[in-house]
Amino acid sequence: MIGLKTLLQIQDLHTYFYLRKGISKVVNGLQLSVREGELLGVVGESGSGKTVTAMSVVNRVRMPGKVVKGKVIYQGQDLLKLSEEELRKYRGKEIGLIAANARGNLNPLVKVGNQIANVYLAHNKVNKKEAWEKAVEMLRMVGMNDALRRAEAYPHEMSGGMAQRVMIALALVNSPNLLIADDATNGLDVTVQSQIMDLILDIVNKQGASGILITHDLGVVAQCCSEIAIMYCGQIVEKGPVTAFFDEPKHPYSRNLLNSLPERRITQERIELKGSLSSPLSLPTGCVYQTRCPYVMDVCRKVEPSMLHVDDNYNVKCHLYQEKTENRGSANEKLA
Amino acid sequence: MKNLLDIKGIKKHFPVRGTKDVVTAVNDISFNIREGETFGLIGESGSGKSSVGRCILNLISPTSGEMRYKGMEYSKFGKKEAAVIRTEMQMVFQDPYYSLNPRKTVWETVEDTLRVNKNLAATDRKKMTVDALAKVQFFENDYEKYPHQLSAGQQQRVGIARAIAPKPKFIVLDEPTSSLDLSVRAEIIDLLVKLQKDSGITYLFISHDLSTIQFLCHRVAVMYLGRIVEYGDVNEVFHNHRHPYSKALLASVMKPDPKIPRSDYRLSGEIPSPINLPKGCHLASRCPEVEAKCREIDPPFIDVGNGHFVNCHHAAPLEKERIPVTQKN
Amino acid sequence: MLYLRDFSYSLRRNRGGFIGFLIIMITLLCAIFAPIIAPYAPEEAIVEDSRLAPNSDHIFGTDETGMDVFSRVVHATRIDVTIAVFGTLLSLLIGIPIGLAAAYREGLFGEITMRIADVLQAFPVFILAIALVSILGNNVQNIIIAIAFLNAPIYMRFVRSEVLSIKQRPYVEAARCAGMSNLKIMFKELLPNSLRPTMVQASINMGWAILLTAGLSFIGAGVRVPTAEWGSMIAIGAPLIITGQWWSSFFPGVAIGITVLGFALFGDFLRLYLDPERR
């Protein structure tokens, strides 16, 4: 299913926000790639820069924010170098974005059917009637019974789950190759969340698309994704196949994250976290996790670790694995 | 173990503005909470779980039903008696930021809760404030901070300090961890567990986060559309659930372990409106196991053993006779 | 002391607010020290010196009856500022508690007070003011009452809508959980958190009150003529503008403009200053 070709590659992405208090380095030096047909889960806590990353990919960061450095290469084309005009061909067509808070992202004054039809019209040479029919078809596809009537509804007449389905229909109407879901199920009830995830998985599989699921829910990633990337302070600190990650996470931050899960804590003691989160206004030199890391070494305070290749397709950004890449095995002893 | 709270048949109706309709938020609920335990109330939005918590604290008064605290029916208490019970029952809220007055410092937030008790001398009040704050790891240099200067986890700890300051016997925790990040959530849960160990507080933990409920609670009740559909020991309910709604709810939880396959037990559709509920089982319109009688007759509570009760026509009873739950316990 | 230092620090960092504060201070000083600042008595008419253009003796010139415009502009601050300050204070005193109670006790009481406010606000402010003053009689005290009466519904609405939104916050519920009395909840939890828009509006309304007073006096329904008041001064000077003697209307007009601007700027500053998250 997963091809070998890279569909999207983010290289050394830096997105800063220029605030009165100073420069907030929300995304700094992010590296990430998505292969064709892959569903990647990006996990991070609030403030880790997840949403800004998604916005940077489609080049939608606005003042006071700015992408200051980096490349977002989609099928060989750097999206950050394109003009607004050229970008429009990608947004909504090649790349579909599902945002959190669906109702806030839908126009309250336009019927949902028309909102979907308009996106379809923008990228296809069809007339209004055909576009409307396509919209109804999409609503049917996202599991709305009574799609014809629903297409006539306004967003406020819908429940949160329904509105989220409309957002998905909106993102998928032009059969994008890449789907970015930014906390798409946040705030929904578990039974609805489960339905929405079924839908996203189904569509991604059917259309052979790739997807990035941005979330703070490790459960969603474990159950739905093939790859996982962990974000901390605007950087990817660990990335690898889901099964390998949940077997044995490498980065100290990931370990702590998994240890916080109630499911794991029934059997394991939690290590208490010390120190505080680094502020994006004043990031330390060296590793971003040094303020909380229980294994912090001198080198962590001086040198920023590079993304180390520790296993097949498995990368981790931590000095503890420096030796492991040269001399396998010793780092694990240190962590034990 | 003695029962701290006995809740019997409480109902709460809210009128819908401008119409004659009523929303049935809580529909004939009975359960009891034992001293020193953590009782979990599981439910999705619109299930009425928060209304139950607020009814118990008399923040909203139930339309009908009986509530007993240590055997005393307190919902009809006069002002004086109610004030005594007030200090013994407290609440921690979901949104840590909005649950704090933005113009009060950490110290004022906690101390003002104690000022209500006029018999308390100023020195005792100060001492109790220091104690409560120390229990949540707040010390002198943070006393003068305002809520917006604190992280979400710290804000929630102030909320907890405010609740424990009058030394209550019982605390309603209304989704106290739902809006927090994973590691902060773990920190708050640990704090709650520690407080219970130290002073034997009884908790009512209201949440839709099933894994936290499983970790924290001793007994749980699952709510759907204002009714309890299943209740019992936490392990019974999580591993031996009989109600289709519990099955679907637990099947929907995505376990953070890729080796556990996802169950495909699903309910169809969405939760119906709580205005003018149909007769029969409320789940009938979504249930995969629905039969004709579900749409006609209210299901009884069936004792399936081990203090585990299921409100469904399909649950196999322990013995032949069906025992309504209100008469048990 | 600490509050004062915090206030002056914030003020110095906000240019608009600083200018506004400066204007208000100068106005107040003029009001207090008017007899010292003004070279002539405000109602001292020297007929042979009438209609003099601004010169070294009369820097703002003199009006029709030979009264010194500068002295009158300075003295007028006394009346205008008094009316504005007391009128606004009185309307706050009426509006805030009613708004608070109307929001806390919804239902019949809330409905009735709101409908009364609707009726009051349905009339054009100026017409209502004229009516009130002509019923009560036109003196300073009655203008203050008229202004209080007209502005109270505004504050009532502001407080009420704020309280209605804050009332649902969990911290109010927490206060009730703790067993606080209704009065305590109203004044300790609800009121401090709902005053910000009201205070901002009050500052801006000070300016309006001055405009209203001037307006009433301009048409002769306000302060009686020989008394130094900006509106009546403009009225006296208005016919002279055609014949080229612009100064006797112009300077009081400028005074009104600057004062209103000062209160508006200061109100804008208050909006930021009273934000609880600023601390």
From TrEMBL, chain A:
Taxonomy, superkingdom: Bacteria
Membrane topology: Peripheral membrane protein
One example GO MF annotation: ATP hydrolysis activity
Subcellular location: Cell membrane
A GO CC annotation given for this chain: plasma membrane
A Pfam family that the UniProt record links to this protein: oligo_HPY
Keywords: ATP-binding, Cell membrane, Ion transport, Membrane, Nickel, Nickel transport, Nucleotide-binding, Translocase, Transport
Reaction equations catalysed: Ni(2+)(out) + ATP + H2O = Ni(2+)(in) + ADP + phosphate + H(+)
Complex and partners: The complex is composed of two ATP-binding proteins (NikD and NikE), two transmembrane proteins (NikB and NikC) and a solute-binding protein (NikA).
Enzyme kind, highest EC tier: translocase
EC number: 7.2.2.11
Classification via PANTHER family: NICKEL ABC TRANSPORTER, ATP-BINDING PROTEIN, OLIGOPEPTIDE TRANSPORT ATP-BINDING PROTEIN APPD
Domain (ABC transporter): residue spans on this chain: 8-258
Name of the molecule in the record: Nickel import system ATP-binding protein NikD
Family statement drawn from the similarity comment of this UniProt entry: Belongs to the ABC transporter superfamily.
GO terms of biological process kind: peptide transport
PROSITE patterns the record matches: ABC_TRANSPORTER_1, ABC_TRANSPORTER_2
Coiled-coil boundaries: none
Keyword presence, Ribonucleoprotein: no
SUPFAM superfamilies: P-loop containing nucleoside triphosphate hydrolases
NCBIfam families, alphabetized: oligo_HPY
TrEMBL record, chain B:
GO biological process: one example: peptide transport
Pfam families linked to this entry: ABC_tran, oligo_HPY
Span of domain ABC transporter: 5-250
Protein keywords: ATP-binding, Nucleotide-binding, Transport
UniProt xrefs under InterPro entries: AAA+_ATPase, ABC_transp_ATP-bind, ABC_transporter-like_ATP-bd, ABC_transporter-like_CS, Oligopep_ABC_C, P-loop_NTPase
An example Gene Ontology molecular-function term: ATP binding
This protein's record includes keyword Transport: yes
Family: Belongs to the ABC transporter superfamily.
NCBIfam families, alphabetized: oligo_HPY
PANTHER family from the UniProt entry: D,D-DIPEPTIDE TRANSPORT ATP-BINDING PROTEIN DDPF-RELATED, TRANSPORT ATP-BINDING PROTEIN
Name used for this protein in its record: ABC transporter ATP-binding protein
